[in-house]
Each structure stands twice: as structure tokens, then as C-alpha cells.
Amino acid sequence: MLRTADPGGKVRLSRRFAAAWAGGEIATVGTAEPPARPARPTAPELRPPREMPRRRIGQSTAGRQALYHALAHIELNAIDLAWDIIARFTAEAPPRGFYDDWVRVADDEARHFALLAQRLAALDIDYGTLPAHDGLWQAAQATAHDLLARLAVVPLVLEARGLDVTPGLIAKLAAAGDTEGTAVLETIYRDEIVHVAAGKRWFDWLCARRGLAPEVAWRDLVARHFKGVVKPPFNTEARLAAGLQAEFYEALAPEAPDG
């Protein structure tokens, strides 16, 4: 999957391999070295996050095209992130449950991309038409040396941030009368709670193996390997459902200015 550039092919392979793993047709994990970067189509143009145009959903088709395109790009990266965590860190010798969780995540992300691609098609646009940012894979590269760092940054910062912002996007799509898009984002939102929970479960497991306090380790790793800000407002209900207590992450949030 990581060497497959075509998004549709990546989705099909991911879903096929996930079904084979769940059905017992694949029972062991190999030791192949994953590529430093997954294969990608020639489009979209990748830009630094700060150079991406701001999208406004509102009632406009262009705004919803931009939203679905940005989300599809995130989900395509998420497919690769799930397979990369499976392939890259086999030296940690995690139990079968680790692979069960991340294969499921890969399958979910592939399904999410397909749903978003359908929404794009309904709005007469294809994935790759608009520019996209490379922030997610930059985070993967920054944490490629250590499974604990990868878990700290990708599921417990980046995916957790998705829990914070998605309800607002759902509300805007609903206000725009986009019932199909609302249903897609509600599906993604429910699944992402499960994904963040998997990240927290295996982060805690690895901290216990290394004799580390999870809260202290997480804050240290985020400070060292995440260039952004863990910023409020937080969706405390969804985060708690994923196993993230407020005291785990609020200490890294910037303080509100006086006055």
C-alpha cells in the first residue's frame, strides 16, 4: 500500500489486506523496510501549511469542494500512516492486538477516503485538483525513529485535534443543507474516537514497558517532536471517550492572555 501511488488503488489494496488479516488469511507480520515517503500521485500540489488558502464552507460549492478535498488529503495520509506504523516498528515486537487495531484503522481511513471522493465527485471535482499541505507526513518523518514519539504526535495530537474541529464542520454542512456530507463526517467522527483510543492504549502500553509515566512522557515528546500548538477549544467529551483525560493535555495548551 505504501508503494501504491494511485489513491483508488491504495484504497482497494488497504481494504483487501485488512479483510485478509481479519479473516486469518494473513497471520504473520513481516519485516520489510517501509519507504521514507509513501508513493503519491502527481497531484495535488503540496504546499507548506502556512501557504494554504483558508476555506470557507458557507453555502458555496467552492467552499465545500475545498473542505472535502482537504479532508480527503488527510484521510489519504492517514491510510499510509496506519500501514507505516505497522511496518516501521516491528522491532518493538508488539502483541497481535496492536496489529489488529492499526489494520482496522487503515481500513477505516481507506473507507473514509472513498466516501470523501464520492462527495468530491458529486461536486464535480476530483482529488488532486486543489493544492494540499504536507504537514501530516512531516510529522511522520519527525517521529520515524521511535514508536512512542509516533503515538504521542499522530493519534494523540493530530487525530485528537480532529475530534475538536469535526463537530463544527458537521454543523456548517448541516446548515448548508448538505445531508450527505453531514453523514460522512459523522461516520468519520465516530471512527476517529476509536482511532485516538487505540493510540492512547498503545502509548500507555509502551510507556509501561519502558517504565515511563504517560503524562510526563507525552508532554516531553510533544514538546520535542511537534512544531505546532496543542490548542483549545477542546472537545472534552469526545477526548474522554477516547481515553484522554483533560489533565493529560490541558497543561500543553497556551495560556489565555490577560484581560
Please provide a written account of the structure.
It is globular and about 50 Å long. The mean pLDDT is 92. Helix 2 runs antiparallel to helix 3 (96-122), helix 3 (96-122) packs antiparallel against helix 6 (179-210) and helix 5 (147-175) packs across helix 7. The protein has helices at residues 7-22, 61-88, 96-122, 135-142, 147-175, 179-210, 214-225, 236-241, 246-249; strands spanning 46-47, 132-133. The chain has 259 residues and is mainly alpha-helical. The chain has a domain at 127-252.
List the helices and strands and how they pair.
Layout: H1 7-22, E1 46-47, H2 61-88, H3 96-122, E2 132-133, H4 135-142, H5 147-175, H6 179-210, H7 214-225, H8 236-241, H9 246-249
Parallel strand pairs: 1-2
Helix pairs in contact: 1-3, 2-3, 2-5, 3-6, 4-5, 5-6, 5-7
- Provide the gyration radius in Å: 18 Å
Quick check: average pLDDT? Answer: 92
Alpha-beta content class: mainly alpha
What is the string of helix and strand elements?
HEHHEHHHHHH
What's the end-to-end separation, in Å?
A: 51 Å
Could you list some keywords that capture this structure?
mainly alpha, two-stranded parallel ribbon, 2% strand
